[in-house]
Amino acid sequence: MADLPDAATCYELLAQMTLIRRFEEEAGRQYQRAKAGGFLHLAIGEEATIVGTTSVMRDADYLIGTYRTHGHTIARGTDPKRVMAELFGRVDGCSGGRGGSMHMFDRERRFMGGYGIVGGNLPIAAGLALASEYRGEDAVTVCMFGDGASNTGNFGETMNLAALWKLPVFFLVENNLYGMGTSVERHSAQTDLSKKAEGYGIEGTRVDGMDVIAVRDAVREGIRLAREESRPTLLEAFAYRYRGHSAADPEVYRNREEVEEWREKDPIETFAKRCVDADVLGEREVQEIRDRAEQDVKEAVEFADASPEPRLDTLYESLYVLDSAAGWYAVDERSPEPHRGEREEEAMPDTARELAEAGAAYGGQPAGPHPSQDGPDDAGRQQAGDAETESEPEVAREVDD
Ligand SMILES: Cc1ncc(C[n+]2csc(CCOP(=O)(O)OP(=O)(O)O)c2C)c(N)n1
Ligand SMILES: [Mg+2]
Questions:
Q1: pLDDT-based confidence at 163, cuts 50/70/90?
Q2: Whole-prediction pTM value?
Q3: Nearest of 177, 172, 174 to residue 259 by alpha carbon
């Protein structure tokens, strides 16, 4: 077992893991109370992998993750208040309330998201690393993704280019044994995921992702190789999510005993005990950390509750592509004059509301033809028109993702 670092570092590691755990427990509770919309994926049980990794990153390094990244955002230094406000869809959220649980983002702290597309963050990580190299920055990009993501085409494509171009990137697969309800044995021909990039020239190692110190040491070396030798490597960290894949998971693929077995190895409890047994931290300090986390999370909820919802007339701000939902067609029309949906700031409040309601109602519809298939005008107006005849737009809640 690797040696413990100094007391101040141990305190900080334990404090971060404890805060993330409390934050996510509360996020789950707030979700049940319908304070947070959309999907909610909790990483409870995976805190040592998260904190072990970020604790050896420099401020200038980039981190990019998946849709299970509340903890990663907090560990990167974003105020939990802003993370909770994002879950609540409020203006003070770290993505302005536009992203929600799956799309945390903090450019200032170089946390580059937050992606809902499994494996979608991998090529972006290579792009970030390429940009750093191009600009002569000393930064390393750390890319974290799930075991399921290692099966995507993006994985192979990214590994190939990262190795070929010797990019300053470090890959970490958070192996929590399942991709949704499918175990690694049932979804991957190669179950030793650390070997999965070997054919591309990327070496891999494995680490106990429940041990924050072991993760720190393994990640430190991976980052060093990326920074000093431009050598990308892959680390497989074994961890376990105690909660379901998302808030709507009947968990038929595993039994209670398995979850209990992993709880015995809880990354926070075992680390706290180790620190106390080694006299590096006292019981009093451990309690102080718990109380502080409790208080921070309470304040985060209060802050999020008090933060306003984004103004309706800002609905179309910060959108890159608008033509993905019928009723919200604006940039798929190519003529130069402004079109419906483009000038909400200047529109009368009624127009903004009408557009927002059409879009929200469409969100509750079964998937129909994309507007561009039949021409934006016909299909788009048809869908929006249909929705208007319904008395109450159906609110889309999580069923599956
Ligand atoms: C390209 C793509 N395919 C499928 C999905 C649906 N989906 C969402 S999460 C998930 C499981 C991914 O598992 P893993 O990579 O192990 O990450 P974990 O959820 O365990 O953290 C799937 C299949 C998706 N979001 N994107
Ligand atoms: Mg997984």
A1: very high
A2: 0.84
A3: 177
Q: Which is the closest atom of ligand 1 to the Cα of 245?
A: 19
Q: Is 245 in the pocket of ligand 1 (CB under 6 A)?
A: yes
Strand partners, 177: none
Query: Comparing C-alpha atoms, which of 237, 194, 197, 193 is closest to residue 215?
Result: 237
**What's phi and psi for 290, nearest 5 deg?**
-65, -45
In whole angstroms, give the CA distance from residue 256 to residue 163.
41
- What CA–CA distance (Å, rounded) separates 258 from 252? 12
Beta-ladder partners of 170 = 142, 233
State yes or no: pLDDT of 155 exceeds 50: yes
pLDDT at residue 345, as a whole number:
54
Q: Measuring from atom 25 of ligand 1, which residue has the nearest CA?
A: 117
Whether the CB of 176 sits within 6 Å of ligand 1: yes
Those residues with Cβ within 8 angstroms of residue 145's Cβ, 6 or more apart along the chain or in another chain? 65, 66, 118, 119, 121, 122, 155, 171, 172, 173, 174
Asked if 156 and 149 touch (Cβ cutoff 8 Å), the reply is no
209 lines ligand 1 (CB under 6 A): no
